[in-house]
Write a structure and sequence with these properties.
The structure holds two protein chains of two kinds. Chain A is mainly beta. Chain A contains no helices and twelve strands. In chain A, the strands form three sheets. In chain A, strands 2, 5, 6, 10, 11 and 12 form a six-stranded mixed beta sheet that branches. Chain A has a four-stranded antiparallel beta sheet with strand order 3-9-8-7, with no helix packed on it. In chain A, strands 1-4 form a two-stranded antiparallel sheet. Chain A starts with a strand and ends with a strand. Chain B is mainly β. In chain B, strands 2, 4, 5, 6, 9, 10 and 11 form a seven-stranded mixed beta sheet that branches. In chain B, strands 1-3-8-7 form a four-stranded antiparallel beta sheet, with no helix packed on it. The chains are: A mainly beta, B mainly beta.
Chain lengths: 116, 113
């Protein structure tokens, strides 16, 4: 069974603070993908990153960085120097390549509010 | 960049009515999905579709739901007799063979009154 846990329901920070959004996943499969999506108030799902289970290198993209640790089954997301435009709900998701379906399972999401 | 297109963006329907949500996946994608997000909650898997048949469905996808790919381009989700609790955002997604990258549509917000 696949499961994604985002324990932080809501986080509120002041602009320019760094913030880390936690994601813990469960799967018995050895080949899988992890994702982060941003959902702004307009409702669409904005793709941020995909990481496969064989690539534990951390990734940085501008103010965004991701820390993938297989040993703790975590795929955490850090926003450096947060901005008001970062306010959104962020979802972590897991997709297993064990079958043709490869359907994606989402965590419950973390609502991030960045105050000016 | 190729997009998954969903129409309408917002639909209001009366309880008990049938609704059809439409999606045009990316043309060379082979796997198609519907997800649902009740307001303020997580995005939940409904159904996956491959080779003109359902390949997996969740417990949410009961007999009131059906999917179809009526022609080579559209992928539809039908709810036969809508209930108030069907009010949600419905996302369509598609994927290429062998690719893990999903492309999501921008969603249809369904409101059942």
């Amino acid at each position: 069974a696949q499961k994604v846990t985002q324990a932080q329901t809501e986080i509120s920070v002041v602009e320019k603070e760094d913030v880390t959004l936690d994601c813990v996943y469960e799967t018995r499969d050895t080949t899988y993908y992890l994702f982060w999506y941003k959902q702004p108030p307009s409702g669409e799902l904005v793709f941020l990153i995909r990481r496969n289970s064989f690539d534990e290198q951390n990734e940085i993209s501008g103010r965004y960085s991701w820390n993938f640790q297989k040993s703790t089954s975590s795929f955490n997301f850090t926003i450096t120097a947060s901005q008001v435009v970062d306010s959104a709900v962020y979802f972590c998701a897991l997709s297993v390549l064990g079958n043709n379906n490869n359907d994606m399972r989402f965590g419950a999401g973390t609502r991030l509010t960045v105050k000016p | 960049e190729p997009e998954v297109t969903q129409t309408p963006s917002h639909q209001v329907t009366q309880m008990g009515q049938e609704v059809i949500l439409r999606c045009v996946p990316i043309s060379n994608h082979l796997y198609f999905y519907w997800y649902r997000q009740i307001l303020g909650q997580k995005v939940e898997f409904l159904v996956s579709f491959y080779n003109n048949e359902i390949s997996e469905k969740s417990e949410i996808f009961d007999d009131q739901f059906s999917v179809e790919r009526p022609d080579g381009s559209n992928f539809t989700l039908k709810i036969r007799s809508t209930k108030l609790e069907d009010s949600a955002m419905y996302f369509c997604a598609s994927r290429h063979r062998g690719g893990a990258g999903y492309t999501f549509g921008s969603g249809t917000r369904l409101t059942v009154v």
